[in-house]
Amino acid sequence: MQDQLKIGLAPLARTTFDIPLAEQVTAQVRARLYEAGFALIGPETLVTDLESTRQVAAHLAEAAPDLVLAFQATFADSTMIQALAEAAPAPLLLWAVPEARTGGRLRLNSFCGINLGGHALKRSGQRFDYIYAAPDAPGVLDKITALAQAGRARRRLHAARIGRVGENPEGFEPCKLDAPSLVERFGVEVVQFTLDEVFERVLQVPDDQIDALLQAWQGQVAGLPAMDQPALRKTVGTYIVLRDLAAEHALAAWAVRCWPEFFTKLGCAACGAMSMLTNDLMPCSCEADVNGAITQLLLQWISGSQVFGTDMVAFEVEENLGVLWHCGKAPLAMADPAFEARATIHSNRRLPLLLEFPLKPGRVTFARLSESGGDRAYRLVIGGGEMVRAPLPFSGTSGVLRFDRGAQAALDTVMNEGLEHHIELTYGDYLPALTALAQMLEIPVVHL
Length: 448
Known about the structure:
This protein has a 6-stranded antiparallel barrel with strand order 10-11-16-15-14-17. It has a 5-stranded parallel β-sheet with strand order 2-1-3-4-5, with helices on both faces. A 4-stranded parallel β-sheet has the order 7-6-8-9, sandwiched between helices. The protein is α/β, with parallel strands linked by helices. Helix 2 (about 50-65) runs parallel beside helix 3 (about 80-85), helix 7 crosses helix 9 (about 230-250) and helix 9 (about 230-250) packs across helix 11. The protein contains 14 helices and 18 strands. The protein has helices at about 20-35, 50-65, 80-85, 110-125, 140-155, 180-185, 195-205, 205-220, 230-250, 260-265, 270-280, 290-305, 405-415, 430-440, and strands spanning about 5-10, 40, 65-70, 90-95, 130, 160-165, 190-195, 255, 285, 310-315, 320-325, 340-345, 355-360, 360-370, 380-390, 395-405, 420-425, 445. It starts with 5 loop residues before the first strand and ends with a strand. The protein has 2 domains: about 5-155, Rossmann fold; about 160-445, L-fucose Isomerase, Chain A, domain 2 (3-Layer(aba) Sandwich), CATH 3.40.275.10.
């Protein structure tokens, strides 16, 4: 369920211009934003002087909106926009409206206001975006939505805590952790846990908690009674422990070393637990991939829905298709409704619990916070496509994707850019929000 996006609206004006017309246009803007489902924060009347602007900016700083919208109801000098920018806790959007040529008075002079303000912001090194359009113009609400989604994701990222269980497997460089860099660049804190402390807690989970959860899962996943029951119960216990640890330590996501120790020491697969946690909007990345978990969070915050961390395992260039797969950890919400999601065992380790189903058809967006550029530099890999209905490509959870940019272009980008083997995807089209987010984070974009 998507949280309501919060817009800090500051309608700026000077009393020497046509105030009744400015109030009329501002009311149209406010109505459009309300109709689109935004929560509005800020004054109900025009802001007409610098001191009032500073008071509005202070209020917005406390309210923490996802986007600050400086609506230039009339011309005003740059001091008012600069006051908003200095205190704004969110990305800043400048909005001016066109004015009809009447041969008479320039009643609003709205564009000149954002032109003057934009120059001042650029000159002082501050970021902003702009709209120059009437309130009912096509695309206006789409742009505001994308910027607000990106602003919310950036704000939440600065306070995110990721749980990491164990270390990345040897030879899995995409899953290496640079914790100081994540704190410095994004404000993300990684909380480390050992495999042994997690395993010890799993073995102590009360039977009644496991029984209750198993009963709930049986209504969602076929075939649970046929699984190795001691191993199955350990997977359920893993779900409970990771859920509880997340609550105890205020964690937003997990990066888990899911093999080999879950199989060789605990005697179960972590996949089923990670699938169900991800379905509950607690994203889980396998192979202790913290950057993957961060990407899952970003996509979840933008889309409001589940995110699957997966591998790209095949490219069928002539058909413009690719195959995405992971052992059995996709969230249930992504299952093709024409297929009954079922329990299964790991294809190599032969232990439960994994989920098995093909991904449902529909529009998808995929992304990856990447370190493939080297020199501790981050990039954001983004792309889109259409998940097509197809028979289950491989055991576990997998799907067939038609790339927007073509399978050959995607394959070339993966290899020529040396991208990570993990990619994260969600349903819907969120490329504008991801592009805006990359700009806010000041990292380059790689189009897949």
